[in-house]
Amino acid sequence: MKRAYWLEHVVFAYGDKPALTIDHLAISAGRITALIGPNGAGKSTLLELLAFLIHPDAGEMYFFGQPVRREDVLALRRRVGLVAQSPYLLQGSVMDNVELGLRLRGIGKEQRHRRAMDAMERVGLAGFEKRSVRALSGGEKQRVALARALAPAPEVLLFDEPFTYLDQSNVRLVEQVLSNYARQSGNTVVFSTHEQVQGIALADESISLFAGRSVGAPLVNLFRGALRNGVFDTGKLAIQVPRALDQGSHLSVDPEEIVLSPEPLNSSLRNSFRGRIIMIAEEAGRARITIDIGEKLNARITLESLQSLGLELGKEVWVSFKATAVKVF
Q1: CATH: 3.40.470.10, 2.40.50.100, 3.40.190.10, 2.40.30.10. Which one for 221-328?
Q2: Whole-structure pTM value
Q3: Which of 24, 117, 120, 309 is most solvent-facing, going by the fewest CB within 10 Å?
Q4: DSSP-H helix ranges across the chain
């Protein structure tokens, strides 16, 4: 798979405050990648790095196989479009804003107008071209910023929390725009979100960020605690982890690796807890089951398994998983 980006031992800090410490990170070309993590995980900083708005304090970045050098960043920025979570719009009309990137690239008036109109239509803003940005809602401003990024047809489209200000109908529209941009044109899309389920459902690949690091683990079941002698203690649960792990203050359990059963299993699974089902939801064609086992733990199973196991709200169930289903960081 061709890479759009490759980051090697990248470090970035705001003054003396570390923001990113990434050992290795690859983002595939021509696909949709979700950056998933809580607020403060470093998602926005990473997007600014990918947009060449900031430069690493240490480490190497590669863009489509070529090393990123400081003297090249102005040219590289023209190949990337970034839509910020709270985008800055110029005073004036919607058309003024959507044409901006094209104007800066020296695109002629006729072609500029045609491409801007096409971008506005794709994001549901046909007929908005003369409207003042002052009269727009937050969601409309977000779509103007998206149209402005789409109009120059960048090789990479970066989007920071794209669904924050949108109602449900516009969420579906923007999801479709991002999907089409990658799958119909072969371009690359990277977006950030703190909603793991939505990110996984829309993206071809996902990257979990926590405290400025790529942790290589889902962040659905995230616990804080202490690790000692192969056991991670959350204060409410003692979870067996691979003995090779010797440090870390956070633990996550992959929801896809959790086995549910009506009775305790006679198996090699090192972690087994009895709990009670407190929530059942359907997400992206699968069932998410939340079980209270002292801590709230989420399992993701097929809808067929949900039915065959006869799982219901309030029912007791055994939760089992391997030590290798656990990530400590």
Answers
A1: 2.40.50.100
A2: 0.80
A3: 24
A4: 43-50, 73-77, 94-98, 100-104, 109-122, 138-150, 168-183, 196-202, 303-309
